[in-house]
Amino acid sequence: MAIQDNEQVKPSVAPIKDRRGIRRGIYLLPNLITTGALFSGFYAIISSMSGALENAAIAIVIAGCLDSLDGRVARMTNTQSEFGVQYDSLSDLVAFGVAPAVMMFSWILGDLGKIGWMVAFLYMACAALRLARFNTAPDNKVFYGLASPAAAGTLAAIVWLWTDNLPVEVAWQVAVALAFVVSIVALLMVTNIRYYSPKNIDLKGRVPFIYLIAAVLFFVIVAMYPPGVLLALTVCYASSGPINAVIRKRKIIDTESY
Length: 258
What we know:
Blueprint: H1 4-23, H2 28-49, H3 53-76, H4 82-107, H5 114-136, E1 142-144, H6 148-165, H7 172-189, E2 194-196, H8 209-224, H9 226-257
Antiparallel strand pairs: 1-2
């Protein structure tokens, strides 16, 4: 533990440097997008508490779309900053950690009593741990653990699809099953399972014309029924990590057996 004199000196030095950095200004565009994601997460929390679960789910999806843009815009415009990194991480915790936990608790976890709020906290804590690990990990071409936006998108898609087709009230058996799903999604965020990183997509490079046609078809399919398509995509992505891990494990076993 540092002595008291040192503790008194540090605040008089470090904050001055930080304040000078802030006086120089912050980059508007990427941080404006991050603010939009933060607002969407906050709106999802308010909507969940007021019972507007479909609005909450859509807000989380919007936050995910904005989160996929801010870092990419910062890199493309050469406006990266340490402030932006920290701001984005705090925004992600609200939008993809707190908001989904509150949404699921307001919908079905609250009916399970102590188990329900413990599952909600488990999800939020795993999201926080996932973000902390991401901030301290090297910039690799793969993610270790399910990314928090993908985890939040999975839960948002479930809520969106359910509220769009079925009554909000569910039987206790369904509530238990969904609590199990939330727990699995939460634990996937803190595993060492490798996932493909969308950061590998090069938007500035040249691609075959067929890629553009595929992108147009993708948006058409999404527009036909957003919640169903979103759930299919998020479930496939969340499952891809464990499936690839099993395939790699079998290849290693087969190689060692020869």
